[in-house]
Specification:
By secondary structure, the protein is α/β, with parallel strands linked by helices. It folds into 2 domains: 204 residues, Rossmann fold (3-Layer(aba) Sandwich); 72 residues, Helicase, Ruva Protein, domain 3 (Orthogonal Bundle), CATH 1.10.8.100. The chain is 40% helix and 17% strand. The chain is built from 12 helices and 9 strands. The chain has a 7-stranded mixed sheet, sandwiched between helices. Strand 3, helix 4 and strand 4 form a beta-alpha-beta unit. Helix 2 packs across helix 3. It starts with a helix and ends with a helix.
């Protein structure tokens, strides 16, 4: 392909040939070094099936399609579709959908466009305003996506990959780390975007774990959210606020019999400790029914 996509993308942005839409959180990444590092971190090869959400002007897409077997991208901004079609006119391994990913039927699309692969990579510079909904949609709706290499606002990246007893650790940390091995990879300065956002970004990697069938995920995640409902409160008080019919002493006893002090806050517990007390909690509740 004779057209240098990144140079052309930079020209379109710098000469205001495209309209930047704030509602889509459009900040175009055009730095080749960062893009190369993202591709390397993803681990894709010539046998890989890849989904990208929000390709923008295709700076990341260019590298993906030159490596992967088949690529499916979702772009909600219809004004960018002719540009992407023009940039990638000779790429037969690429399907471009003008669609809101949050409304997509992921597995149906994988079946139709990615040979129904059971091992799909997800690589994306995620729109800031819908980062968490996109991640949760992937985790909840498709077991076919095995690896996510994603860029996002740095505060969210730290939250998803944080450990107990840190200021970023919360319910979302636990939920994501219950389903994936989460790794913080590297920071991306705001200066490498056009237009420049107000915050820095970071790239993380999420690798799928086997599902834990021994625990009710929906109930467990609700329990975890309740445990963090007010961060400054103790775990006992947060759980009592959510399940007040059981009484505060119930939750003190729940923690004590699992060797956890009753003055602890939720951010001090590991994923496994949360599972232990939730399993005990369910057993006790069933006895009361």
């Amino acid at each position: 392909m004779s057209l240098n996509i990144n140079n052309e993308a930079k020209r379109l942005v710098e000469e205001n040939k495209i309209s930047i839409k704030k509602k889509y959180s459009q900040n175009f990444l055009l730095d080749e070094n960062i893009i190369t590092n993202i591709i390397k971190a993803s681990g894709i090869d010539e046998n890989s099936y890849v989904i990208e959400v929000g390709p923008g002007l295709g700076a990341l897409t260019k590298h993906i399609v030159n490596i992967a077997k088949k690529v499916l991208i979702y772009e909600v901004d219809q004004d960018l579709i002719p540009i992407l079609n023009d940039f990638f006119i000779d790429k037969k391994n690429l399907v471009i959908l003008n669609q809101d990913f949050l409304k997509a039927k992921i597995d149906s699309d994988i079946s139709r466009y990615l040979d129904d692969s059971k091992d799909v990579w997800f690589i994306s510079n995620l729109p800031y305003h819908i980062t968490t909904p996109i991640i949760m949609k992937v985790l909840e709706e498709s077991q076919k996506i095995k690896s996510l290499t994603i860029m996002m606002q740095i505060e969210v990246a730290r939250r998803l990959t944080s450990k107990p007893n840190t200021k970023d650790y919360n319910a979302l940390s636990i939920i994501v780390q219950d389903q994936t091995n989460a790794s913080y990879l590297f920071k991306v300065p705001r200066s490498v975007f056009k237009p420049k956002p107000n915050v820095d970004s970071a790239v993380i990697n999420l690798i799928r774990k086997e599902l834990d069938d021994s625990i009710d995920q929906e109930g467990f995640y609700k329990f975890v959210h309740n445990a963090f409902s007010q961060r400054r409160k103790t775990l006992v008080n947060n759980l009592y606020d959510s399940y007040s019919d059981l009484g505060k002493e119930y939750f003190k006893n729940l923690l004590e019999r699992n060797n956890i002090i009753d003055t602890i806050r939720g951010e001090a517990l590991t994923l496994e400790e949360f599972k232990i007390i939730y399993t005990d909690f369910i057993k006790e509740k069933e006895k009361c029914i």
